[in-house]
Design brief:
It contains 2 helices and no strands. The chain is mostly helical and 63 residues long. The relative contact order is 0.13.
Length: 63
């Protein structure tokens, strides 16, 4: 684990987790990365600036 990452636990409805898993299977984007992206978008929509986050490479499904 990289130094800036912290493990956390939260609860999601089964339907949300199923949808995230579907995207993982279809597009190859890990669930944690999908959640991270979603949180960043939400923070941005609220006008919160999140500094010092590097852009991660897009994840593509290997086939």
């Amino acid at each position: 684990m990289t130094p800036n990452l912290k493990a956390t636990t939260f609860r999601l409805e089964a339907e949300l987790l199923d949808a995230l898993q579907e995207i993982k299977e279809r597009d190859g984007v890990p669930v944690t990365e999908q959640v991270r992206r979603g949180i960043l978008l939400w923070l941005k929509s609220k006008g919160v600036k999140v500094e010092a986050l590097r852009q991660r490479a897009s994840t593509h499904r290997r086939g």
